[in-house]
Each structure stands twice: as structure tokens, then as C-alpha cells.
Design brief:
heterodimer, A: 369 residues, Rossmann fold, 3 domains, six-stranded mixed β-sheet, two-stranded antiparallel sheet, 9 helices, 14 strands, B: 513 residues, five-stranded mixed β-sheet, three-stranded mixed β-sheet
Chain lengths: 369, 513
């Protein structure tokens, strides 16, 4: 189609490959939706060329419908009607009802994530029986009525017994048809994700919000890739404890930070419940990079080297920028691991603010391990 | 015949309906260009819609952006383009492949309404009816420039032009072309000579009547005018110029191809402008006729009524967050028809203050149909609403204005008063909702800097956008550019000199209109 060329050009601009000077006009829309009702805003990048235009805040407009003077049309700065699907030009984001599966797919498309390939030695083969065909013998419990009567009808017409005025069809033993099955071997890929979060005093609400959004999307993506996925949550300050999802996202504690406590607990959980021969293991750790002492960092490195990295598909460390954190831990990791090497299964990502989430997800999941 | 548009024949069933509906439309008095239909797939439809209805446009990323939006909203089931018709002679209209027959009939009836409007409405009378060819020519030219000067260079320049696309003079096409004034000595006539020997315009009169026909006061006024004219002639442009694009085309230091590209963008802006100026009327008119044809002319089978009602109500639904042009347009046309059918117009009706009497006013004049045809010929959205919006209609249609309440940080219904609603509607439609901006002086500060003036009418300009636009203007004008506008009570002058933006007070003429 003729439009393909223009479309490709647009995508190139959005990705920043060409015309970098337009980058400032790109609005990406947000990625997060309301998870509860599974309603999600899909990002549609738009480039808005500058023009002389009115400042919208002191605008207002005309609408049609019931309601008394003073009744609200919706909160926020967004002018009503401007976000709706339609022919408006300024429209930026679309709100759609989608299932989480579709969402993961869209996410994959948008972020260009590769499909995750289960690692060779971890593949567990499961056998399952599936009904695949029809055969003339079998147990009565698997009798297929429809096919049986079809066969009987065919036979009676062929033999001339069938009378359309009195359409009685009586199956005999030869007409009986039964469902048959075959055994399918399928690789089973189960995954466990361990989310660890630093909840020490330096992690503020904004930092936690970033972690929440990011782990939601990571979860969505991994769920679309593995049939059974388990998630475990660990929070830590100077000590670590396992918590449920709600607590993980809402707790706020204060105190020092000992990252090793979390790694130790994670190693323990993995050892007890998730043998690495059967599970794909994805530990994620989010922190602001402030650790208590050099000694503790050394303990962390050791735990990573001996316990976590060898069993994990990928160990992900996300460092959220916070006004209090020093960001030292990431530097320490860099020192001890060859992070850019092909063999390294540690992925680190720095998340500056909410806008950095998309990039960071890409970094974590882009490897496809 | 146009070669690049391969029109496949319609299926026999559709073709039969097309002929039938065309006949019905003509019998009803609709008058349209020949209308050609084509059935297209959704992808194709999205492509054409992204191109603004044309199969060929010059290469530009914004069509790709529009295409992505359209095809995505289709993929996610958000919206569906039903109908697409372009103002051209012949008219081209597209039907969506796989739609039910009732949809296709509905769309065809609707399209004949549009075609009639294109052909007969005054505001379309100056549009290029061979736009299909023109667009294709534009595309060829821009491709050639891209081959010569590079894709990015040309594209960047198009972006710059698009950034001032809204600075055109909507009424220019309808004004008689100005005769170029005869060359006369400009301002070099010494004041002493401005006595009786001067060439002041006089009304024709016999000599003995001259004293009465051209009295001293009249001559004085003429003299005053002549002096003002001379003052003006020193300024450039003489009068503020609304068509900023044209002015830049003529005056800015551009190369030939750049001038051409600016001209192309300007031509297309002028071509699309009447559609924005008559959106409410055009959609209302088409909806009025599809309703009439579908329900009264035996187009539908009995089993199609529910589907039709569903489509129709979805397209004419009331929106709280804004005006649905389909709804407002069709209702106002019906309202006018009813008023003129019952004689609810004229001085006698206006003078009547007895509400009871007004409510039952019926003179059986039966002029409704005739009137709406007349309205569709002469009006645009602004005059349409200005002339025919009545308090009764406003209440019946539950119109209201809304505004942002900063204390609650939410948008609230502000008023249901007739004057407020009408005022707001007209303000929104004025100049297609764009700020009125004119070239005031091309030799500002006597340093060939460009001064634009925003005719302030109560709403401020968006600062960030203004700065970025000034930057683009500078890349055309290549000398510092200014725009005079207002912020609250202050008259301000925004300036960009090629490196930095600055803002200062403005002590020239007040930019208020």
C-alpha cells in the first residue's frame, strides 16, 4: 500500500532513528491502566507539530445532555471529550477493554520484546492425553452419539431401510463410534518470579509506585509466556521478610538497608520450593542502590555468585533514582560482574522516573532468557 | 479517466441499490455531481482516510501516524469508518467491504446528502473540484523535490509549513479579487500642494451643484483619508494581512522549491477549510437526508429496521463532553423545517410574547422544505447557528456550556442559558477555533523583522506552542520574529531572534481587536 512508506517513516521518527529534532513533540501516552477492571490505556505515539493555538485551560465548551448547573463532567485537567475515540485530531490515548493476555501481546509488540525461550536443560516434558479422532471401538463412556447416528443414518440410507416419512434410525454395533485420543508430549515451562524491594527510609512513595508499575508489566509479560507462573514477594530493610502482594506494594518502613538479607531469603525460598531443574527462575530486585556497609555488599556479591545467578534464568536489578540513595550498589555490581558480557545473566537497569519505566522493561525483558 | 484510481465495478446488488437510491435522491430535489462508489477493505479505507480521503498524497509521516491510529482503533474494536466521501467532480465515495447491506444503503443515502451539499453550498463554491488530480500533482512535485534535495530536507520544510497551516484567511476566496491600484506617486507630494489642485476624489456633479454635492466637509474627509493612505503606504503590508502563508510566500527569502512547497500546503489548507467551516451543517444535512430516504422511501426491508435504528442512533448520540455535529446539525435542520412549516418566523411571531400562543403557533405555511434548501445554499456553521439557534431549541436539545473549576479541579456544567450557549458555540467556531493572527509589519523596528499580531478575544495563546511556532517562522523569515498578544491584562511581545526567546511588554497599538 502507498501508506506503508509514510507509516514506516513515522515509526522511524518515533523510535528516534531519524529526525531527532521531532522527538520533543512526541507524546507517548501512558502504559498503565486500571488493573482491577482490566482496563488499559494503550500508548499511541503522536507527534504534535507546534502551532499558534489557544491555551486550553481557560477554554471550556458546549455539551449536550442532562444534568444541573455545577454538575461534574469528570475530574482532572483533561478537557471532557478530548480523550474519546472519534474524529478529533488532538486525541492521544485510547481506552480499551482488553484481557491481560491480549495486553501482554500488545506490550510485546509495542516494546518489541522477544519471545522467551526456555533454557534447554530446564525443559520438563509433560505428557497429556488429548482427544484427537474417532475410532470404531472403545469404552461406552467415550461413545460419540452424533457420529454414531450419522453412521447409522448413512448405513440405513445405503441399504434402503430409511423412510423419510418415519425417520427412525437404529444404530447397530458396527455403527458405534468412539472418541480416540493420543498422548501429546509438551515441554512444561513453569516460572517463578521473586520480587524483592528495598523499603528502607530512602525509598519514597514515588519510587514504590515505579516498582509497582514495572512489576505489574513484567508479571503480565511473563504470564503470557509461561503456563504456570508463581510470584513471591520479599521486602527488606535491614532484615528481610516474605509478604503478600498487597503488603509488598503498600508497606513503607524505615531504617537501614541490608540487601544481603533479601538475597539470603530468596536463596532459601528457591532452595526449598523451586528446584532449578524444574523451574525457570526470575529474581527481580528493586532498590535505590544504598547499602548499609561494604561488608554487606560483599556478602551480596557472594550470594549472587554462589546461590542466585547459577540457578536463575536472569537476575534483574532495577535501581530507582531517589533523592536520598547514592546508587552505589549498581557500581558495585558492575565491578564484580561483567554486566555487558554475553554470558552474564545479570541485567541491570536504572530507572530515573516514571517515563523511564518503558525503557527499563525493555532492558529487563529484551534479552529473552 | 483518472488512471491511478482503479474503480472496480460494484457488485450487481449494490449497483442496483445505488441506481435506486440515486433516483430517489434526485426525485427529492438533491442536486449532486456524479457520484462514484468503491468498495474497499478496511486497510484500504484506513489508508484513504489517513490521506484525508484521497488515494494519493505527497509523502509525509503524519499520514502514517493517522493510519496507525485508524488501523489500531479498528484492531482494538474502538471505532469503524463507515463512510468517506471527497469533494470533487465527480465525487468519490468509499464503502466498507463486508458491511451489511443496510449499512451500505445507509451510507449511500448519506453520501448523496454530502454530495448535494458540496455542489450547492456557497462556501464550497470556490474549492477546487479537480482536487483529486491536484493532489496527485502535488505528490509528484514533492517527490521530485525529495529526489533533488533529499527526503529529510523536504520533510523538515513541510513540517515548518504545517506549523503555520492555520494562519490563512478563511474569507479570502470569497472576496472579489482586488484590482491592483493604479501606480501613483506615493507620499512624495508636498503638503502645500494638497490644496485645491490636488486630485481628491469628488462625486460627479454639474458645476453649479458641485458646492452642494461636494461640500467642504466632504472634501476635508477625503483629504484626511488621503493623508492616512499615504501614511499607510509607508507600512508594509499596507493593511494587516490575515493570509500569513501567502505573505511569507511572497515576501520571505525562500528558494523556488520552498515557495512551491509552501504554496502546496497552503492550497490544501484552503481546500479543506470549508469542510471545517460547515461540519455541523454538512453532517446535519446528510443525516437529515439519509433518515428521510431510509425511512420514507422504501429502501429498507422489514428486517433491517433494527440495525438501521442502531446505526443511526449511534451516529446521532448526544455527547456530554462536546457537540456531536451530526446530532446538532440534523436537529437544527428539522427545527428550521418545522418553524417554516408552521410559520413560526417573521416579525409577527417574534413580537408575540404569549408563551401559550407561541407554543401553538401554526399558520400552515408549509415552507419548511424550501427553507432548508435555501439554508444549505447560503450558510456556514457560524451563520447557521447565529441565525437559527433559538431558546426553544436550546432547551429542547439540552445544550449547556461547561468550564473548568480550578478549585475542584474538574469540568462542570456552567450554564444552560441561551445567550451563554450561543456565545460559546459561536466563539468555538469562529476562525475554526484558531486564534486570529495577522502580519502587522514586515519591517518592524525598521530592521526587517516580522511582527505578527494576535487579535485577542479573551483566550490566551499557549506559551510553549507559540515559542516553538516562532522558531519555525524564524526559519522561514530568517530574521527575528515577534508576535504581539496578551497575557491577562498585559500586552506582551514574544520574540525569537534565532537563538533565544524573550518576552517583553508591548507599547505599540493595543493588539485587542
Amino acid at each position: 500500500m502507498r501508506i506503508t512508506q509514510d507509516h514506516r517513516r513515522f515509526r522511524q521518527i518515533v523510535r528516534g532513528k531519524v529526525r531527532r529534532n521531532l522527538k520533543q513533540y512526541i507524546s507517548s501516552g501512558s502504559l498503565i491502566g486500571r488493573q482491577g477492571k482490566e482496563r488499559v490505556t494503550i500508548p499511541l505515539p503522536q507527534i504534535d507539530l507546534p502551532r499558534f493555538k489557544f491555551n486550553s485551560q481557560n477554554g471550556g465548551g458546549v455539551g449536550q445532555g442532562d444534568g444541573d448547573v455545577g454538575e461534574s463532567l469528570g475530574p482532572g485537567d483533561q478537557e471532557p471529550g478530548s480523550g474519546e475515540a472519534g474524529e478529533g485530531e488532538g486525541e492521544k490515548a485510547l481506552e480499551v477493554d482488553v484481557t491481560l493476555d491480549e495486553l501482554a501481546q500488545i506490550l510485546g509488540e509495542e516494546l518489541e520484546l522477544p519471545r522467551i525461550e526456555p533454557r534447554g536443560e530446564k525443559q520438563v516434558v509433560t505428557e497429556r492425553d488429548r482427544y484427537t479422532g474417532i475410532r470404531p471401538v472403545g469404552p461406552n463412556s467415550l461413545r460419540n452419539f452424533k457420529r454414531t447416528y450419522k453412521q447409522a443414518l448413512r448405513r440405513s440410507i445405503a441399504t434402503g431401510v430409511y423412510n423419510p416419512q418415519n425417520p427412525v434410525v437404529l444404530p447397530i454395533a458396527d455403527d458405534m463410534r468412539y472418541r480416540s485420543w493420543s498422548t501429546v508430549k509438551s515441554p512444561q515451562s513453569n516460572a517463578v518470579v521473586i520480587y524483592m524491594m528495598d523499603v528502607s527510609g530512602s525509598m519514597g512513595d514515588e519510587q514504590k509506585e515505579i516498582v509497582r508499575i514495572e512489576s505489574f508489566w513484567i508479571n503480565t509479560w511473563l504470564k503470557s509466556q509461561y503456563s504456570g507462573i508463581e510470584t513471591r514477594y520479599i521486602v527488606h530493610d535491614a532484615t528481610a521478610r516474605e509478604v503478600d502482594e498487597h503488603t509488598f506494594f503498600h508497606t513503607r518502613e524505615s531504617g537501614g538497608t541490608m540487601i544481603s538479607s533479601a538475597y539470603r531469603l530468596a536463596a532459601q525460598i528457591l532452595e526449598d520450593d523451586y528446584p532449578s531443574s524444574e523451574w525457570n527462575i526470575y529474581p527481580f530486585h528493586f532498590s535505590d542502590g544504598d547499602n548499609w556497609s561494604v561488608d554487606d555488599t560483599r556478602a551480596c556479591i557472594q550470594l549472587l555468585k554462589e546461590k542466585l545467578v547459577p540457578v536463575a534464568n536472569q537476575f534483574s536489578y532495577g535501581q530507582v533514582e531517589s533523592p536520598y540513595g547514592s546508587g552505589q550498589f549498581l557500581k558495585d555490581l558492575r565491578e564484580h560482574f561483567d554486566l555487558d558480557g554475553d554470558q552474564c545473566s545479570i541485567v541491570c537497569s536504572e530507572i530515573k522516573n516514571k517515563d523511564g519505566i518503558v525503557e527499563s522493561i525493555k532492558e529487563f525483558l529484551g534479552a529473552g532468557r | 479517466m483518472i488512471q491511478y484510481l482503479k474503480v472496480r465495478p460494484l457488485s450487481p446488488e449494490l449497483e442496483a441499490w445505488r441506481i435506486k437510491i440515486e433516483g430517489i435522491a434526485a426525485d427529492l430535489g438533491l442536486d449532486f455531481f456524479e457520484t462514484r462508489y468503491e468498495v474497499v477493505s478496511y486497510d484500504k479505507m484506513s489508508e484513504i482516510a489517513a490521506f484525508g480521503g484521497f488515494p494519493t498524497r505527497y509523502p509525509h509521516w503524519r499520514f502514517g501516524m493517522e493510519f496507525e491510529r485508524l488501523s489500531k482503533s479498528h484492531t482494538y474494536g474502538l471505532s469503524k469508518i463507515y463512510e468517506l466521501v471527497i469533494n470533487n467532480d465527480p465525487c468519490y465515495a468509499y464503502l466498507l467491504e463486508g458491511n451489511e447491506m443496510v449499512d451500505q444503503k445507509l451510507v449511500m443515502s448519506h453520501v448523496f446528502g454530502h454530495c448535494d451539499f458540496f455542489k450547492n453550498n456557497f462556501w464550497f463554491s470556490r474549492t477546487n473540484r479537480r482536487m483529486l488530480d491536484t493532489m496527485a500533482n502535488h505528490a509528484t512535485r514533492i517527490r521530485r523535490y525529495q529526489d533533488l534535495y533529499g527526503i529529510t530536507v523536504v520533510e523538515e520544510f513541510i513540517d515548518t509549513c504545517l506549523s503555520i497551516e492555520n494562519l490563512i484567511d478563511l474569507h479570502r476566496p470569497y472576496r472579489p479579487k482586488k484590482k491592483t491600484p493604479a501606480i501613483r506617486p506615493k507620499g512624495d507630494l508636498p503638503d502645500e500642494l494638497m490644496g485645491d489642485g490636488e486630485n481628491l476624489p469628488r462625486l460627479q456633479a454639474k458645476e453649479y451643484m458641485d458646492e452642494y454635492v461636494n461640500p467642504e466637509s466632504y472634501i476635508d474627509a477625503q483629504r484626511q483619508k488621503a493623508i492616512e493612505e499615504r501614511e499607510k503606504a509607508k507600512k508594509h503590508p499596507e493593511n494587516p494581512e490575515r493570509d500569513v502563508m501567502l505573505f511569507l510566500m511572497q515576501e520571505a527569502p525562500l528558494t523556488r522549491w520552498q515557495r512551491n512547497v509552501l504554496g502546496i500546503v497552503r492550497d490544501e489548507a484552503y481546500y479543506f477549510a470549508p469542510q471545517a467551516m460547515t461540519k455541523i451543517m454538512n453532517e446535519g444535512w446528510a443525516s437529515y437526508w439519509h433518515t428521510h430516504m431510509m425511512t420514507k422511501c422504501g429502501i429498507m426491508e422489514g428486517n433491517e429496521f433494527i440495525d438501521y435504528a442502531d446505526r443511526h442512533s449511534r451516529c446521532t448520540v448526544m455527547q456530554k463532553g462536546g457537540i456531536n455535529p451530526y446530532k446538532l446539525g440534523i436537529e437544527l435542520f428539522r427545527h428550521i423545517e418545522e418553524r417554516w412549516n408552521m410559520g413560526r418566523f417573521g416579525a409577527e411571531y417574534d413580537r408575540c410574547t404569549d408563551m401559550e400562543e407561541r407554543a401553538h403557533w401554526n399558520l400552515n405555511t408549509g415552507l419548511g422544505r424550501e427553507k432548508i434548501f435555501e439554508v444549505r445554499k447560503h450558510h456556514n456553521d457560524i451563520t447557521f447557528l447565529d441565525e437559527f439557534l433559538t431558546p426553544e431549541f436550546c432547551a429542547e436539545q439540552k445544550l449547556f456550556t461547561y468550564a473548568h473549576n480550578p478549585r475542584a479541579n474538574e469540568w462542570q456544567i456552567a450554564s444552560r442559558g441561551f445567550q451563554e450557549v450561543k456565545q460559546k458555540l459561536l466563539t468555538q467556531l469562529t476562525n475554526m477555533g484558531q486564534p486570529v493572527i495577522e502580519v502587522e509589519d514586515a519591517n518592524f523596528n525598521n530592521r526587517s523583522e516580522l511582527l505578527l499580531v494576535h487579535r485577542f478575544d479573551g483566550v490566551e495563546l499557549d506559551d510553549a506552542y507559540s515559542q516553538a511556532t516562532l522558531k519555525n517562522l524564524h526559519s522561514l523569515w530568517k530574521r527575528p520574529v515577534h508576535i504581539a498578544t496578551r497575557k491577562g491584562d498585559r500586552a506582551v511581545l514574544l520574540r525569537f531572534d534565532g537563538e533565544t526567546h524573550s518576552e517583553g511588554g508591548f507599547d505599540g497599538d493595543s493588539p485587542a481587536a
